[in-house]
Structures are given as C-alpha cells and as structure tokens.
Amino acid sequence: MNELFSAGLTQLCRNDSIVNDCITPRCEEIIVLLAHYIAEIEQVNPVLKLVGTNDRRELIVRHILDSLAPLGIICGTCDTRHIADIGSGAGLPGIPLAIALPDSRITLIERMGRRAGFLRHIVKALDLGNVYIEEAEMEKIPRGRFSTVTFRAFRPLEPKIFKKLSRLCGDGGTLAAYKGRKCRAESEMAELEKSLPHLAGCWELLPCPVPMLDEERHLLVVKPPYPLPPAP
Question: How far does the chain reach from its first CA to its final CA, in angstroms?
Fold first, then answer.
C-alpha cells in the first residue's frame, strides 16, 4: 500500500510545483496518515457503505489520489484558510486535503449520523487538529462561513443546489467542484447559466489528472458575484 501511495504522490509532485511544496517535505508522514485512513475505511466499509469498493488499489487511486489530484489548483486559485467539504461521507476529499494542508481549517459537513460518527472517529484516530465535523444538512449551516466550498460525488449543479452551496461562501469565496469528463461538466454549466446568466465568465474548468487512472478529471472553479439571493 505504501509503495502505491509513494508512486502516486511522486507523480502529483512531479506534475505541479505547488503540490511538491505541500507534499515533499512531509511525504513520509502523509503516507502514514493516508495508510491509516485507508485501513479505517476498510474496517467499517462493509457495514457503513462509505465507498463503493473494497478493493485497496481502487480505494487509493479512485478515492485518495483522486481527492488530492486538484491540490495544486485549490492552493493556487482558492482561499484555503477555511474549506468546507459538503456531503463528506467517508471524508472525501476533506480528510486527504486536511492531511496535505495542516494549516487550513477543514470542516466536514455530513448529514448522516453514522457517517458523521465515522468522521469524528477518524479525526481522533489521525489526530487531525485542523478538522471539524458538522452533522447537519447544508441548508442549516450559517451562511458566509467558508472561504472555499468543495464537494465530490455530489449532486449536479442545478440552480437551487448552486444557491444553497454558494450561500456558505464568504464574500469572494469559491466553489470548487470535483468533476469528471469535460464535455459533461461544460454541459452542466451551460444549463446553469440559462437560469443564472450572471455566472457567464465566472467559472473555469481545469484538468487534474489522477495518477494511474486513465479517465478525465477536472476541477470546476466558480467565483460568482456575492452575495447571491437566498435559496428558496
């Protein structure tokens, strides 16, 4: 497992100088923490169904490395002081980001009690002092709390969802959505712009290839005008 992590992180560092600065000085520590995290997921996944696979290689590549693939983009384009991970589930991407960014405050927002309980256990087990858990619907989180809001394997960006997400950002805050194929993400945003035309020109779709995964991955970075009207 450690060899796979090492190979993946090395590739991420080689492709991005920002990632290299984050990872290389603490690479051994990061690998130990990520390996511990994987072991904890494997132990409870048959019961909690946190992720859709029990294959270790797939867990590492499709979930951990996938979560870290846009690290350079997030650090280079977003304010990382206080990041919210919406619908965190198993802690993806929030836990890998918190491990890589120990100076960032990461809030994991998860509405399901058993999954939130797992997240509290992980934070304690890995001694992640920069991670906080909110067991709540995102609609019940006070507005304007976060500098960046991210989400992975979440619902498509529709007008109601977009407004609910963007209200969590402070002035000038950023939405950073993990996406797959470029054409699908562009189509999603074209539909969103029909209802919210002021978003035109306020977003970028940036490639973030995942080591050892031959599939398209992108980060959708949205910096719309704030504040938006409250969600209905």
Answer: 46
